[in-house]
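Note to self: keep these together.
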Amino acid sequence: MIDGSSVRTFFTWIAFALLAGSTACGQQWAEEMFDETSHDFGTVARGAEVSHTFTLENIYEEDAHVSDIRSTCGCTTVTIDQSFLKTWEKAKITTTVDTKAYHGQKDSTLTVVFDKPFPAEVRLQIHSYIRRDVVVHPGIVSFGSVPQGTGARKKLTVTYAGRSDWKIMQVEASNPHLGVQAAEMSRTVGEISEVKYDLIVDLAEDAPAGYIHDYLSLVTNDVNPRAARVPVPVEGLVTSAFSIRPSPLLLGVVQAGAPVSRRLVIKGAKRFRILAARCSDERFKCTVPDEANVLQLVPVTFTPDAETGKISGTISIETDQAGDEALQAEVHVQVVP
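Structure:
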């Protein structure tokens, strides 16, 4: 993806590409908007709910539009959260692999079709190997919505059919707020042995507010290195006592020397007072309301200087609710001469 310090027009990009002798400029301008164009799920268990999100950002002054998305394999489904993108707006393309109806090596190509600002196609590659001998039920650790400070616990069952000595050696979690225990519940030895484990997953009470989208890794004693680790997805939402919208706050495209203002909307579970609102860049100024209320409107004004390009900052808002950390919101503006 290109450096986002300044926005480009589509036609300026094409001119640079032609001068550089690019033969694929008709497609590459669209690829520049994606954070990545391939993802390998590795080895996954049968029944596991595995998904991945590709992010694209419109880095051009012209509007961009995704007119269609196609998949080469029936094992994958794909969704997009918004198809029209103005400058600096982002979209998420989420692909999900069907691990119940399919098994073995599955490779899929997603073709993302653009018709604005110019026709182009971007191909996203998806790879996975679905095991038939390991089944996870349910296929995902889903905490749902969890109020901050309460924590939660979920239980899954992992079943293996095959070798009599198969074991889960340990379970690794990259998220420090997740605790996992794997307990062997039964082992039936025969021509095809069956082993069952209970997987207990705890979400810590001190987990920060926000979305959880992680994977646990079941480390097994499989000899094949590709099969030795089996991922289990974890999802949830730790809800704060406050919500702040929009985040990020987009102030749009402005001319140098012309101030611009937008409002942040902050909602609490009960009446609260805003004590202070500060931004990491002093060119962004916030006006703090005087009254306590359940819903607060905070005007944010940006006064540009001679600098042009994309300018970003982080707004920190402190409230009178004891024990709450400052609320955070990103703010972006594009300054043109």
